[in-house]
Specification:
By secondary structure, the chain is an alpha/beta fold. It has helices spanning 15-24, 46-56, 68-79, 83-87, 90-97, 108-116, 139-143, 146-154; strands spanning 5-8, 33-35, 62-64, 120-122, 126-129, 169-172, 181-183, 186-188, 202-208, 212-217. The chain has one domain: 4-Layer Sandwich (Purple Acid Phosphatase, chain A, domain 2), CATH 3.60.21. 41% of the residues are buried.
Amino acid sequence: MSDKIIAIGDVHGCLQTLKALWNKLEPYSDQPHLFIGDYIDRGPDSKGVIDFLMNVRNERECIFLRGNHEQMLLDAYERGDAYNWMLNGGESTLKSYGEDVIVKDISTEHIQFYRDTQLFYETENFFFVHAGAPPHQSLEESKQSTSAHDFFLWGRDHLNVFDTPWEKTVVFGHTPRPYPIRKKKMIGIDTGCVYNKIGYGKLTAVYLPDMKFIQQVSLD
């Protein structure tokens, strides 16, 4: 499987920023575009982001991974467990769907989009996942482990290790940094698009295998 792919970091409801980055990626429109998850929450227009992604997937090949924020929305929808989601930006997502909307009011088309997201994706030399992979075991072991799948959505322990038994370079988002993370077998592309803090406020994509980073300063 070809390593030529564009990976795009955490959007978090920043529709105008996403649109601007999408236009910057036009020269790579013939390559797959992989979104690392966390399309929703905290930012101003989560519904608009999903509408946009559902539309542009007909223009370019798109792969959508699941982030912990999509998982929290699905937990709220399917189990009625909205407490954790509300603590983590879910209220802004509901507001983007309309006044006095509850999670059960979200359209079935959008719920199906969230359900269809993948936990991970891989090419010959890269493994894509929202948060990261357990640093103490191989990626093959993690793919077979339910507990590792939870790490795929939430984990951060890998950020503090010097070496891992991973067979491929892991590309992830989830943990915002002022600049992309570039360590041995690790590429982190969450640059805090939704945060108005010095050094953050950028949406980042990386073109692989060339390791070319393309960024858009937040417009939201």
